[in-house]
């Protein structure tokens, strides 16, 4: 992965050209794609970057819903998903946001509220809408239910903690270090567990008075941690997952599954309405993101090394205005 000079993209009909100000580094959609281990084919050369935020610099033909100077975030999906094929993804199947400029369909952009900075906006748009979709739409989370959030200090995990609290749930923040557990608790979790130094299942059962949690928000898929989280689910529990950076192949206690009528749901996605709501909540101070550091675009390699080494707490963001 290296910095190169290439021609600026040309926005086509219905597209806008965005001057990128911030793009985050994601473990799966950046590191795994770059390593050549992503589950779907990727064509090289590729510019990564799935969640760029910036300023509209040019309009393609027929664009009427955006104007030059608009501050926007972009959707991950380049086109709509069908029942026959998965959608193409920005920064995975088309050139993405590790660049000074990126083009996107105007309808796939969302305005950034005043007062919200670009690094925060790109992280909010990347994770918060997915967390709401998984918990509200897929898990059907109800107020008063217990949720175990795995990886609670990560990008998606920290969004899960806040989305669950927003929906009125009680939250256990689980992470692999005490300082990461504290991040989840500081974001509103009702209890915390260090799953590297404590027995995760035993702590979950203690906290819930042996009832177990109603929902597990799982985005790690680690072969040691997954069964412990799964065992913490109570009757009619639901496990939702949209991540597998811990390996992806895990053991499953099928007896616990059917005796307790548990549902396991794998899903991704978000709606434009959720993106808008999440950005507005962040602008109003009701949704926070954890950012470890912001680096110049030229330090993308170092950014990947930091994320791969699990150093720091929170997201690493690239500033494309600094090369």
Structure, explained:
This protein has 323 residues and is α/β, with parallel strands linked by helices. It has 2 domains: 15-111 and 290-319, Medium-chain alcohol dehydrogenases, catalytic domain (Quinone Oxidoreductase, Chain A, domain 1), CATH 3.90.180; 128-266, Rossmann fold (3-Layer(aba) Sandwich), CATH 3.40.50.720. Helix content is 28%, strand content 23%. It has helices at 27-34, 118-138, 155-166, 178-186, 200-207, 225-231, 254-259, 272-283, 300-308, and strands at 15-24, 53-59, 71-74, 101-105, 109-111, 146-150, 170-175, 191-194, 213-218, 233-241, 263-266, 291-296, 315-319. Strands 1, 2, 3, 4, 5, 12 and 13 form a 7-stranded mixed beta sheet that branches. Strands 8-7-6-9-10-11 form a 6-stranded parallel beta sheet, with helices on both faces. The two termini are 14 Å apart.
């Amino acid at each position: 992965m290296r910095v190169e000079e290439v021609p600026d993209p040309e926005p086509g009909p219905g597209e806008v050209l965005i001057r990128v100000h911030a793009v985050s580094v994601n473990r799966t959609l950046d590191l795994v794609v770059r390593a050549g281990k992503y589950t779907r084919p990727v064509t090289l050369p590729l510019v990564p970057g799935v969640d760029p935020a910036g300023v509209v610099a040019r309009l393609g033909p027929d664009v009427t819903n955006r104007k030059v100077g608009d501050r926007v975030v972009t959707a991950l999906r380049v086109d709509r998903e069908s029942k026959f094929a998965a959608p193409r993804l920005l920064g995975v199947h088309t050139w993405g946001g590790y660049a000074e400029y990126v083009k996107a369909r105007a309808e796939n952009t969302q305005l950034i509220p005043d007062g919200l900075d670009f690094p925060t906006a790109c992280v909010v748009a990347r994770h918060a809408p997915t967390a709401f979709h998984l918990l509200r739409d897929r898990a059907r989370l109800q107020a008063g239910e217990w949720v175990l959030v795995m990886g609670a200090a990560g990008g998606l995990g920290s969004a899960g903690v806040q989305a669950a609290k927003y929906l009125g749930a009680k939250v256990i923040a689980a992470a692999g270090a005490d300082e990461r557990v504290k991040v989840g608790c500081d974001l509103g979790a009702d209890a915390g567990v260090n799953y590297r130094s404590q027995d995760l299942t035993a702590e979950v059962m203690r906290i819930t008075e042996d009832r177990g949690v109603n929902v597990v928000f799982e985005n790690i898929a680690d072969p040691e941690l997954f069964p412990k989280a799964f065992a913490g689910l109570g009757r009619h529990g639901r496990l939702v997952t949209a991540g597998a950076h811990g390996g992806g192949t895990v053991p499953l206690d099928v007896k616990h599954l059917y005796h307790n009528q548990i549902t396991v749901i794998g899903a991704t996605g978000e709606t434009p309405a959720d993106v808008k709501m999440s950005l507005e909540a962040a602008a109003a101070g009701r949704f926070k993101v954890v950012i470890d550091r912001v680096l110049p675009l030229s330090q993308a390699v170092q950014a990947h090394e930091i994320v791969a080494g699990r150093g720091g707490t929170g997201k690493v963001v690239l500033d494309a205005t600094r090369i």
